[in-house]
Amino acid sequence: MEKKINILFDAYILAEADFKDSARSGIFFTALNLLKEFSQNENVNISIYCSNKKFSAKLKKTLDKYFPNNKFNNLYLEILSPIEKLHSRLTCNYKEKKNPLTKLGITAASAIKKIVHWKHTDYENLTKDIDIYFSPVYKIPDEIKNIKSIKKYTILYDITPILYPEYFSIENKKDYWFTNLAKSLNSEDYYFTISEYTRKDFLEHFSQLDPDKVIPTLLACSDNFKPEKEKTKDVLKKYKLPTDKKYIFSLCTLEPRKNLIRAVKCFIEFVNKNDIKDMVYILGGGSWDGFIEKMEREISDFEKYKHLILRAGYIDDEDLAPLYSGAEWFVYTSEYEGFGLPPLEAMSCECPVITSNNSSLPEVVGNCGIMIDFDSDEQHIKAYEDYYYNYNFRKENAIKGFKRAKEFSWKKCADTMIEQFYKILYSGR
Length: 429
Prior knowledge:
The structure is a single chain. This protein is an alpha/beta fold and 429 residues long. The chain has two domains: 5-79 and 120-220 and 410-426, 3-Layer(aba) Sandwich (Rossmann fold); 229-405, Glycogen Phosphorylase B (Rossmann fold). The chain is 45% helix and 14% strand. It has helices at residues 26-40, 56-66, 82-97, 100-115, 121-126, 142-145, 160-163, 173-184, 196-205, 232-238, 260-274, 291-298, 302-305, 317-326, 341-348, 361-365, 377-388, 391-405, 410-426, and strands spanning 5-10, 44-49, 75-76, 132-135, 151-156, 190-193, 214-216, 246-251, 279-284, 309-313, 329-332, 353-356, 370-372. The strands form two sheets. A seven-stranded parallel β-sheet has the order 3-2-1-4-5-6-7, with helices on both faces. A six-stranded parallel β-sheet has the order 10-9-8-11-12-13, sandwiched between helices. Strand 2 (44-49), helix 2 (56-66) and strand 3 (75-76) form a beta-alpha-beta unit. The two termini are 17 Å apart. 37% of the residues are buried.
């Protein structure tokens, strides 16, 4: 690899670095870690793209924090024609207020856009040396889509909104990105999927995709995830959690698909059945509105045992490894996952895991944890008992999981992607 590749990296999602909620999800950290690896690769030049000026200051703050010594080539901000800016503002306004006059304005602006062909001279000039446009999550913007000389790549995570539409709504801004992405999928552009299972899902549901242009590339977790049990007690104190109890740990957005209501209900049954006195269940992560109230309503004995179900809320990055490391085991029995980053993080900290046996999770965990049917109460309770009463089994899975986690790395993931860029650019395929 002699000639350097010039990548325009869509870093819009990194503007969410200050949000201590579900915005800082696995997708945020995927984008962050890939940008780190790309920027350290001697075969790559990176330019940064942000599609929204409103978030450019927040993005710059993130880049200064995580890349203090790295001077990226450029910071591209939106350069839209006046009519496109008006169309965008009207569309956002209509989503919020549903004003009929605003809808008429959108229709008029759309008609003008079709009649007047604005030429993005600035964008064509700014991107004349760009080889690859890389989006870690969002659809390719129109101003980039129209530049034929650039190869476009997007990461595809999962089809949760299609499989579980009851949890999503296109009227909800936080869900709208997937709708836009789904509409933009085509046979011309290239896509990375975060697992073989995700690749299969997308190809099954989007026939317009070219299978040869959909490449599975397994993710990884940060090098910060390592055994740090010696720090666990101080971190528990920081979050006002008990230091005199064993604990089960779950980390995810508290939402229906993660199957936490069942996991917690089965924990209460496990405690009650076996008269367990020395264990609590710690839930880490931001919560969907109303989810905790739903959990309390659906678990009949919740009030009696709620002192054993402890919410840590958002957990700072540096505190995650100690919490994983100190847990007796980690539970992640989700209904469906595109990859499943938290179990990999747990295994990297020598924490034994219990996960579902569905979707992509077997690709991550392999035979290094307990894998169960997500909808089986009996299997949940048995898994808890198998770990609680068998120290050697817990230890064995902790060691196996730790070794397996070493097979995943962000460098390997980024190198696979860069090899793909070279293949497309210089082999004519």
